[in-house]
Design goal:
3 strands; mainly alpha; Muramoyl-pentapeptide Carboxypeptidase, domain 1
Length: about 240
């Protein structure tokens, strides 16, 4: 009888050990999955306290465009947060100081925004470059003729090639006070097919302006400086100059 009791007790102890092991394994897996999920969520956004190359890229872009004056060190501190908020405010985005999908896209960081920036056109520009240029054209010149819309796109590309301006399409378009469409938020409108085609034609080398770096509407322009630029051609309501 005692032998039976001892065997039963041993069996119960063994079951308890096995149950504890299973529970530990489940809890460990759950904790690992939770940590991985938390890490993926963290990777999807940048906020104060974040560090790394993406933070550095954001700082570089904002500094080049005139929104940020601090160190480009890959550390998302209070100054970086203020610069992001400034950028968001100026571009019609939610002002929260967090670089999420919409802010990544506005910064031209399309891969981080989950929109696949790696696909390239035959001229070396990405699909996101084309779309951003189309948004600029639509915001700046959707009431103009097709040639006038291509001309606006050509000015952006001429600036990209010029040492006087940033060397990317996003950099040129989001340079501080460079385009009215950015200042008033029209850059965030969805471009129509005409604007997209105009962007592609400009990228393919059509430049109706002959190399101009500036354009303006003489009826609405308020800067005296712009009137001092040498006029090359007038297309529709826009004067194109160098």
């Amino acid at each position: 009888m005692n032998k039976i009791i001892r065997v039963s007790a041993l069996a119960l102890a063994l079951v308890a050990v096995l149950a504890a092991a299973v529970l530990f394994t489940v809890q460990t897996a759950t904790n690992t999955d939770t940590a991985a999920y938390a890490q993926s969520v963290e990777a999807a956004v940048l906020r104060q306290g974040s560090r790394g190359q993406d933070v550095k890229t954001v700082q570089e872009k904002l500094k080049r465009w005139g929104y940020y004056t601090g160190k480009v060190d890959g550390i998302y501190g209070s100054q970086t947060k203020k610069a992001v908020e400034y950028f968001q405010r100026k571009n019609g985005l939610k002002v929260d100081g967090i670089v999420g999908k919409a802010t990544f896209a506005a910064l031209g960081m399309m891969e981080q925004a989950g929109q696949g920036s790696s696909s390239q056109t035959q001229n070396g520009f990405t699909n996101s470059d084309t779309y951003l240029l189309a948004r600029c054209i639509y915001g700046e010149a959707r009431g103009e003729s097709y040639t006038g819309q291509v001309a606006v796109g050509a000015v952006v590309l001429n600036r990209v090639r010029s040492s006087q301006f940033p060397n990317t399409i996003a950099g040129v378009i989001y340079q501080k006070h460079a385009f009215t469409a950015v200042s008033d938020g029209q850059i965030n409108l969805t471009p129509d097919q005409t604007a997209i085609n105009a962007a592609k034609d400009a990228m393919n080398g059509w430049d109706p302006t002959g190399g101009c770096l500036y354009y303006y509407n003489p009826v609405t322009a308020t800067s005296e400086w712009i009137f001092s630029r040498e006029t090359v051609i007038t297309i529709g309501k826009h004067v194109f100059a160098i």
